[in-house]
Amino acid sequence: MKVRSPLNRGAKERLTQLAQLLHRSYGAPENDLGNKADPLDEALYITLTLQTDLPRAALMWSRLKTAFPSWDALAAARVQRIASVLREGGLHRQKAKTIKRLLARVKKFAGELSLERLHQLSDAEAEHFLVSLPGFSWKTARCVLLYSLGRDTFPVDSNTFRILKRMGVLPPSAVYRRRSLHDALQNAVPKAERRAFHVNLVVHGQRVCLPQTPRCGECSVRRCCAKRGVALSLQPKAALHSAFARAS
Ligand code: SF4
Fold first, then answer.
1. What is the pLDDT, as a whole number, of residue 2?
2. Higher per-residue pLDDT: 95 or 242
3. 139 CA to middle of ligand 1, Å?
4. Which domain, by its residues, includes 96?
5. Atom 2 (ligand 1): residue with closest C-alpha?
6. How many domains does the chain have?
7. Using one digit for the tens of pLDDT, what is the confidence trace for 157-202?
8. Mutual orientation of helices 179-188 and 138-147 as an angle, nearest 10°?
9. How far is CA 189 from CA 12, 63, 166, 233, in A?
10. What is the pLDDT of residue 79?
11. Ligand 1 mean position, distance from CA 221 (Å)
12. Residues 138, 185 within the same domain
């Protein structure tokens, strides 16, 4: 039986066009995202980025590094102490618990607080281990593979998912948690373009195609965007505005 693609028809061509336009606009400013070259550093950094913006995640990263001079010191610290260091980063208790469990899992796997061993594994083997880490998904696993292990993955984060839905590459019914969606998108992007395209999508989602208030008027890809769901996301504000106008 033929399995139906989770992508819309013509997705490959639209992705190619989008990758070119975004690259012209941003040029893949990787340093702006703060990802780490060491795989354990990256795993911890990604944990800090959960439901927070990049400046705050960067601040929490520097606080963590200052408070705990080594990852051994972090692993030995109490959850409450870690949570107090991460207080301003949001979800601090949850992140502190996740970090403790993550470090324990790494120690059990590698015998030390290091994920350098992943360099010796295939993409599939390394991904299999990474998704077993506390708080890890395919997206976070593929970020470690991409940024720290130099593999040709295409992580689909919430920015990418939102943009591709609005652009009409994904159907409105697309479900983020389906692995088939992550795999189909990764397979639709040529290996050599994955890293830069992923970076440009994250930057576009953070600067222009914002979750609640996309800046379509200043968007470099607006001519090829279906803007699906955008009117809906703006509706509450518009409704509020007209209600205010009626009342005044
Ligand atoms: S036109 Fe609007 S909805 Fe489409 S990608 Fe640009 S900002 Fe996002």
1. 67
2. 95
3. 22
4. 36-147
5. 216
6. 2
7. 999 999 999 999 999 999 999 999 999 999 999 999 999 999 999 9
8. 30
9. 7, 36, 18, 28
10. 98
11. 7
12. no
